[in-house]
## 1
Amino acid sequence: MEYSIIQVALVFIVTFVAAIDQFNFLESLYQPIVTGAVIGLILGDLNTGLLVGGTYQLMTIGNMPIGGAQPPNAVIGGIMAAILAIATGLEPNAAVGLAIPFALLGQLGVTLVFTLMSPLMSSADNMAHNADTKGIERLNYFAMALLGLIFAVVVTLFFIAGATIGQTIASAIPTWLQTGLSAAGGMMRFVGFAVLLKVMMNRDMWGFFLMGFGLALITVANDSLATPALLILALIGFGIAFWDFQQQTELKGAAVSDGGDFEDGI
């Protein structure tokens, strides 16, 4: 499938912005569910972009960088998964599995930028000591531009190559390997969610988890509710969370008011 120079340029820009957004800006534009949809719009297949982005989002939902240790990068991985699925016609789960090496490449890119910027931190300290705000701004802009360029160049090069020979590569992949990639890609979303649950879950939340699981089974089993199931569950979850927030706020307010005002130790 051939793509225009405008589409290539837009992919470059989206990747550049998403790479910077990962550590700056809103820190939400880089999420695979967003980049997948945007790449889908650019390449003319929004549905596939959303499917791949949502699948990749679930896989990375529990990934958090700890100190200098970086997980496989969600920016390059998510964008390349969408590109592979749309440009080569791969099944979304298989595209997610095939995008993991690109995510590891992004991980190396982030580590490289962090390594290159480390010696410059002493210069930043001196700038702060001398109240050189312009110098600090230039240093930050340099780091952001460097990361954005690395990511954008990598994705664009693979995008151009993928658009040219991607279909040949996809057709050369044996059926058993495509099946394995699909299974791995489908499994990764559950692994990512399990990692998140391991961090967040406590005894007080198990009731909500089981209730949500039961509601999901009921809505999916009902043909009339299966399509808007995600929206229904999201609204129910928001309603419960909002109710719990109100209850907690009222309890805290009551605890403060019951304390009364004491004077002279009485």
Note: The chain is about 80% helix and 0% strand.
## 2
Amino acid sequence: MSITAIETEALGLSADQRARLIDVLWDSLSGSELKAREAAWAAESERRIDAYEAGKLTARDAKDVFADLKKTHRK
């Protein structure tokens, strides 16, 4: 089964079922995989904070960001 097929199936689940699937998949990652992902996110967060503080990055209201995401990801 392809990732696209799995994604299509997963999106057909109820919100509770999707949340459960997220938990199962997250729990399936090993400790080293989680640490690597957390380290990458921490580094990216620091990079963005530094860029913002240096005036190289602007902030946006979360409501605007989420509205844009909803527009671009509607099916």
Note: The chain has four helices and no strands.
## 3
Amino acid sequence: MIGLIQHSPARRALLSLTALVFAGLALQTLARPDLVAAAVGNGLHSANDYSELHAIYAGLWLGHTALGLLAARHVDSQPLLGDVLGLLIFSQALGRVMSAAQWGWPDGVLRVMMAVEIISGLTLWLVRPSQGVQPIQSK
């Protein structure tokens, strides 16, 4: 895959920043689930509501964090890790577009999140590792 920019340090920085953002989002969800739920238009009325919020937001965002850190560490030898993270992020925006077809476009913070998801997903795909980097071969 050829991107617009082939620069391993820039890709590593983007992956690390992405991991940091998702860690912050996950921690905020754990610390203040009521604020996160309100921001995305959900109510927290039962154990199931809290369970779903923690699974889909905190849990998945912690998974994004781990993948981002792993991808940053192996930016040259395993570029697919960063590509998968970009796909996961971009897929969130795709889900919002699919919802918009029937229910309309999101507003407020979710509209901003959709724009950030599109930009960050595409950026992770377009900023590639430096040329000439060979994957590490297993022994």
Note: DSSP finds five helices and two strands in the chain.
